[in-house]
Amino acid sequence: MHIETLKIFCDVVETASFSKAGSLNSMTQSAVSQQILSLEKKLGRTLLERGRRQCCVTPEGTVLLDAAREMLEIYDGLEERFNELADVVAGELQVAAVYSIGLHDLPPYLKAFQKKYERVQVNVNYRRSAQVYAQVLSGEAIMGFVAYPIARKGIHVESFMDDEMVVICPPSHPFAKSKKIAPVSLKKERFIAFDPDLPTRQYLDRHFRENGILLGHTIEFDNIETVKRAVEIEQGISILPLATVRDEIKAKTLCGIPLDPPLRRPLGILLKRNRPRTPALREFLALLQGR
What we know:
The protein has 291 residues and is α/β, with parallel strands linked by helices. It has three domains: 3-76, Orthogonal Bundle (Arc Repressor Mutant, subunit A), CATH 1.10.10; 87-161 and 268-288, D-Maltodextrin-Binding Protein, domain 2, CATH 3.40.190; 162-263, D-Maltodextrin-Binding Protein, domain 2 (3-Layer(aba) Sandwich). It is 43% helix and 25% strand. It has helices spanning 3-15, 18-24, 29-43, 59-76, 78-86, 99-105, 107-116, 129-138, 199-210, 224-232, 246-251, 279-288, and strands at 48-50, 55-57, 91-97, 120-126, 143-147, 155-169, 190-194, 216-221, 238-241, 255-272.
């Protein structure tokens, strides 16, 4: 049984298609089918139920799928283990981050790290919060970055930094001349919010509810860039991390005013529990945490 065959089997299951699995492995559909038939013959089990349009994994195939994923993860980690033995800072770091952190907080650290360790390739995948947790837990990402981190089963959380949250408004808004804004002042404002399932939205809702303030949510979006554009065209005000609006404040297309008392958004680093830390990962963590 070859490791390549196990990868092909996993790709067939995950894509539910022999042709798509073939494309992923630079093989013809017929060659993929032969590989799966050979695997079934060797194991003496039917692994896939073939249909006209797609295939489905059998209970026996599910057992092999779980084992194959574990074996592939071990195989993919061999280079990391070899580097660890030699204490060589090299290889790839697959990172998953929510958009705001990946686009605004991480870049200076990435630039400094890549300059110091040219033999390490850091790849950042931009995901929603739930996807970041899932990729770290599955091993697809060696580390993840989220706001308002929560330790979950199989995941260890380390502190990264805190973002200052500011009220943003267009320059024409009365708030634009304020040095600070009390939360009670937001009561009568049209508020542009994140979607309800996003951690920042959930935290803001809880924070203001506990202080007896009900925000008037007029529009909801799933990303910071759209929220900023909506505020710029005077559809309402919002609250965003200062790091995400520095360019707009500098260009004077938006104003950012601190809240009184201040409001901060904690950012965390997610790591899979008991996963070995390669030299590259250890050095990257040290840079991120100022060690």
